[in-house]
Amino acid sequence: MLKCTHQRVVVGPGDDAGVLRFKSNLLVETVDVITPIVDDPYTFGAICAANSVSDVYAMGGRPLSALAILGFSSCDYPSSAVKSLLKGCIDKLKEAGACLIGGHSIDDKEFKFGLAVTGAIDNKTILKVAGASAGEVLILTKPLGTGIITSAAKRGKVKSAALNRVIASMLKLNKTASMAAVACGSQSATDVTGFGLLGHGLNMAKSSKADLVIFYDKVPLMDEVKKCAAAGLVPKGAQRNLEFCKKDVIFSNGISKEEQLILSDPQTSGGLLIALPPKGLKKFDRIAKKERMPYWIIGEVIKGKGRIIVR
Ligand code: CO
Ligand code: CO
Question: Is residue 1 part of a domain?
């Protein structure tokens, strides 16, 4: 693991984003780049923006500005597609209260797009990945399955209604989830992205020197995820994630290989995994209802040494 001990650094590598002190202010900074997961450039730009600002929300911050990074081959992509992409990105950033202030493009055979995001954060309410404590409940704010569904959709194996619901979920900002976590006394959150629920959960467990218990039946799944997993339509990333995590995960006998893969499915613009003191639950529920934000209590934090137990 990279380490940075500079006195300006408040949170270094290993968390969702870095936090830096500059004079009396704290800045939170992160970068994320992804390859297309939907065909429409406007939608892809908006998903990229939601995905990139998510790490700022996962720290309990609010995004202020972003720089775009675009890799594409100008022979293969018309400038109108790039314009739509940027429009989608700018509109989503606006919804997050942030603005695009520049960027850079490179010639690349494989299309890529992402953002470096800077935000503001309060020293007293940073949601560190290392902040989870025994006795807290685990909350997840989006269903799992974006990797499984988008890759199955590329092979024409899911209904468009199911894909559309996944797209709507990826477009959703983690803004309310972040604000609710901070307002209800959470000290720890992370966003569920490329390493899946198990990968990001393990990062929280190890950093916090605690174990996470996850109740499989409580974990929300997107439509058709079970069907796709049963048909073997699981992206390679899920298999890699499971391979990487399994030595630190204890699965109960009832948890099938398919279910293990679903918990390892790489997410794009996934929800927040929040460790919340039980006394904050009532208020969390109030905020969630008011803001119409779905959430699921999927488990709990117990004393331990950095493992996940799936029951
Ligand atoms: Co993250
Ligand atoms: Co990230």
Answer: no
82-124: per-residue pLDDT in tens? 999 999 999 999 999 999 999 999 999 999 999 999 999 999 9
Work out the pLDDT band at 75, boundaries 50, 70, 90. Answer: confident
Alpha helices in 106-195 (DSSP H): 146-154, 160-171, 175-183
Question: What pTM was estimated for this model as a whole?
Answer: 0.97
Judgement on whether residues 93 and 141 belong to the same structural domain of the protein: no
Residue pair 308/249 in contact by the 8 Å Cβ criterion: yes
CA 142 – CA 160 distance, rounded (Å): 19
Nearest ligand to the CA of 191 is 1
| Final residue before a domain boundary, out of 72, 89, 124 | 124
**Domain presence at residue 74:** yes
186-197 per-residue burial string, b: 16 or more CB within 10 A, e: under 16: bbbbbbbbbbbb
Q: Please give the distance, rounded to the nearest whole angstrom, from the Cα atom of residue 128 to the centre of ligand 1.
A: 11
Q: What is the pLDDT of residue 1?
A: 62
Where in the sequence is the domain holding 224, given as residue range(s)? Answer: 127-310
**What pLDDT, in 10s, does the model give residues 245-257?**
999 999 999 999 9
Ligand 1 geometric centre to CA of 16 (Å) = 4
CA 33–ligand 2 middle distance (angstroms): 9
Residue 199 Cα, ligand 1 centroid: separation in angstroms? 11
230 CA distance to ligand 1 middle (Å): 28
